[in-house]
Amino acid sequence: MAEHHDLEVLATGDAGASDTVPIQAGSVKKGVYIVLKGQPCKCVDVSTSKTGKHGHAKANIVGLDIFTGKKYEDVAPTSHTMYQPVVVRSEYQLIDIDAENFCSLMDDKGETREDLKLDPDNDPVHAKIKEDFDAGKHLTVVVLKAMKQEKIMQSKELND
């Protein structure tokens, strides 16, 4: 029954493109992306254990939400199907930050977007990006996208 529930939570979306791909719990390794409790996480620890005389090996998986850093854990039989979030990493040039901390970003094709917001009060990386931008530095930012969420994760200074 639990498997059916997982599938409902991870319903896939637009134009046949999937937010997740299946992976066997026994194949999860440290450093891979994995969906834990419905959240896209990076695995930070995985251990397997045998249970009882007729039991199955179980994988105990610990991951950190790639957007919030919150810790999630799950235990599943190693033969159980879990899901990996499809994570897309993009780089943009930071053009402007408005009064509400929305960023004007430009990709390498010259397309712009203004739908991502910095949270400098709660995210030290975002605070540093705003500080560097306000100091006149030319920056590129890295945006991670997974499971219909996106966030600016880091920045690099451009040396013109």
TrEMBL record:
InterPro entries: IF5A-like (IPR001884), IF5A-like_N (IPR048670), IF5A_C (IPR020189), NA-bd_OB-fold (IPR012340), Rib_uL2_dom2 (IPR014722), Trans_elong_IF5A_hypusine_site (IPR019769), Translation_prot_SH3-like_sf (IPR008991)
Cited SUPFAM superfamilies: Nucleic acid-binding proteins, Translation proteins SH3-like domain
Gene3D superfamilies assigned to the protein according to its UniProt record, in alphabetical order: 2.30.30.30, Nucleic acid-binding proteins
Family per similarity comment: Belongs to the eIF-5A family.
GO biological process: positive regulation of translational elongation; positive regulation of translational termination
A Pfam family it matches: IF5A-like_N
Sample GO molecular function, one term: translation elongation factor activity
Gene that specifies this protein: EIF5A
Keyword Protein biosynthesis: yes
Entry keyword annotation includes Endoplasmic reticulum: no
Post-translational modification: eIF-5A seems to be the only eukaryotic protein to have a hypusine residue which is a post-translational modification of a lysine by the addition of a butylamino group.
Function: Translation factor that promotes translation elongation and termination, particularly upon ribosome stalling at specific amino acid sequence contexts. Binds between the exit (E) and peptidyl (P) site of the ribosome and promotes rescue of stalled ribosome: specifically required for efficient translation of polyproline-containing peptides as well as other motifs that stall the ribosome. Acts as ribosome quality control (RQC) cofactor by joining the RQC complex to facilitate peptidyl transfer during CAT tailing step.
Name the record gives this protein: Eukaryotic translation initiation factor 5A
Domain Translation initiation factor 5A C-terminal: 86-156
Keyword tags: Hypusine, Initiation factor, Protein biosynthesis
